[in-house]
Design goal:
Elements lengths: L1 H15 L5 H8 L3 H20 L4 H29 L2 H19 L4 H6 L4 H28 L1 H4 L3 H32 L4 H29 L5 H8 L6 H5 L2 H31 L6 H20 L6 H24 L8 H27 L6 H29 L14 H23 L20
Helix pairs in contact: 2-9, 2-10, 3-4, 3-9, 3-10, 3-13, 4-7, 4-17, 5-7, 5-10, 7-17, 9-10, 9-14, 9-16, 13-14, 13-16, 13-17, 13-18, 14-16, 15-16, 15-18
Amino acid sequence: MVHHSTSEESSEEAQNVQPLGRLATLSYGVGHMLNDITSACWFTYLLLFLTNMGLSPRDAATVMLSGQVADAFTTIFVGELIDRYGHFKLWHAGGSLLVAVSFSSVFGSCLPCKVMGSNSTTLQTIGYSTFAAIFNVGWAVTQVSHMSMVNCMTLNPTSRVSLASCRNAFSMVANLSLYAIALCVFSVYAKDYVDIKLQYHWIAYLSIFFGCCFVVVFLIGTKEPKLKLQFECRKLSGISWTHWFKKILYYQVALVYMLTRLVANVSQALLASYVTKELGMGRSSKASVPAIIYICSFLVSVVLQEIRWSGLRLKIFFTAGAILWIFSGAGVFVLPGRMHNLMYPLSVIIGAANALMMVTGISMESMLVGEDLNGSGFVYGSLSFVDKLSCGLALYALESYQESSDPMQKLDNHISYSVTRYGLGVIPATCALISAAITYTMKLPDACSARSVTLVEPLLA
């Protein structure tokens, strides 16, 4: 009887380490596109939109910070609930619904202002902050449920990295879709106060529609993971939070993931302002420059899906991405406005660096979890908590300092060393340098490398 049970477990494990096929990987990869397209709009245009609506940079940053704080704390509770009850797809569907319903209000009119019959700055800040918090709660639910599915879909390390890479590739598609939508909308409407609100209404509605189409594809094409249930049958008790706090690797991965997200989010939030105000590029550059970045990220993400992964390779590729960002940050910092065309080749390098760091950074989370599936929700939730809180505070500090300082501190005839230039050039490069140093000290497990066989169907075929 014991022999029979052992034989069944061995058969189950052999099946679970089999690499995933193309359709399973692709259907999972599109599941985060609603989050990605709304997130791209959030970080790229929210501060611009709110300041165009009459809010000060500090009030606009307060709105963003309120959303980030709500997102951060939601990830902790959702991660714990998912660890207890599972049902990844149900959480994903609920979070997506909340995102779709609330997002248009973030880029819409101030509802409390209409109700109260007042258009004061304080009331606008409260109104926009409320909907920003609601939107980010839904966003967090979707993100944690989607990310924590990876470890419960397969035990194969290469397939896990492939899922993360595919998710990142479709994240680039979502970002490109947003900038295509934005470019069309900005081209159609004139630039006056009334039309600015209408522009962002259309961008929000079209983004929601596009993202929801892929949510449906994900829910239909992705099966509810069964690995978690199998492991729960063998381990009746869940994994406590203290289990992770005793691991040095947990803190290392948390710092690397936080710094990686700071690189991506801070650069994305300041990019539109940098190309238009610092470099003096045309209005279309707010969409064209980010589009180049995400095209390159998409291409690199697709290529990364074909690699046979180990802990050492994750560290090497992450470090390569960090080095590229260090050089890019230096270039962004010293680039004069009269040479603004050099921003296009710099965008290519930034795009490649973002993909290398993001794919490998997320995959380090997966390696940290390993086969401890009963604690995967807490890991992804807690690391996301640190990410959201740090990004919110960083952007709030930058915007607050920008409001209280002279934005045009010219040190020569060509370059104005403003907060935006420091924020886009120095901060991401510094974060990349620190994260590369931490990655060097990591001891990522290679015990599972024997399972790292290639995919059943190469995604590039």
